[in-house]
Amino acid sequence: MRNNRFNQKKEELHKINNNIRAREVRLVGDNVEQGVYSIQEALRLADALELDLVEISPTAEPPVCKITDYQKFLYQQKKKQKEAKAKSVKVVVKEIRFGPQTDDHDFNFKLKHAKGFLEEGSKLKAYVFFKGRSILFKEQGEVLLLRFATELEDYGKVDQLPALEGKRMIMMMSPKKAPAKAAPAKPKEDKPKVKVEKKEDEEKSAE
Questions:
Q1: What is this structure's pTM?
Q2: Partners of residue 38 on adjacent β-strands
């Protein structure tokens, strides 16, 4: 078993070596025969391999442990988290709010902003807010949102058609993927012309 210098410093992440309080543990990994061991036997095996006994699943019964180099174990964990974070795509949702009586000037102003949002890769949540008795104009709000979607058809696609949720009629859109650029066609290479010279004897025999 290696030096316990990590025991206190990293105790909040994993219990290792003598900080593991279970009487029995289940060992996993390629460097030992997998199975249930007493904590004393597991620590003895870790000591023989000059590695650490690391508790990787404390809620299991018995807890699951692995005999490994704790520094390398932490490095691999951090690396996996970094890779997962890099693969995850952060979805940004921008909102555009209308009133049921939105005029053309306001409509075009918000349309311009919506185009910009979709071009930058953001999702779009467009909704009409009905205040008080304006809920009577819900059909008008639906027409407005459908017109909005039509104006944006070159920039995005509708994920959710206008639907009334409480006092708001909501429509969701996502950006269109940019078309893949076609690879430039390779110029055709002229095949070298082969000049065939006939021998005089062959010409005479042909005659």
A1: 0.46
A2: 24
What domains lie within the chain, and their CATH numbers?
A: 17-81 (3.10.20.80), 93-175 (3.30.110.10)
- Helices marked H in the chain: 6-9, 39-48, 70-87, 104-119, 138-151, 200-206
**Strands ordered across the beta sheet of 156-165:** 93-98, 123-129, 168-175, 156-165
Q: Do 68 and 50 meet the contact criterion of CB atoms below 8 Å apart?
A: no
Cα–Cα distance, 72 to 52 (Å, whole number): 11
Q: How much of the chain, in percent, has pLDDT values that exceed 90?
A: 61
Q: State the pairing for strand pair 52-57/93-98.
A: unpaired
The pLDDT value given to residue 1: 60
- pLDDT tens readout for residues 127-183: 999 988 888 878 999 999 999 999 999 999 999 999 999 999 999 999 987 544 445
Instruction: Quick: pLDDT tens for 6-27.
Output: 444 544 588 999 999 999 999 9
Dist. CA 22–CA 38, nearest whole Å:
9
Mean pLDDT over each residue of the chain, to the nearest integer: 83
CB 34, CB 27: distance < 8 Å: yes
CB-based contact 130:138 (threshold 8 Å):
yes
Residue with tokens 């904590």: 39
Structure tokens at 71: 């520094």
Q: CA 140, CA 182: separation in Å to the nearest integer? A: 43
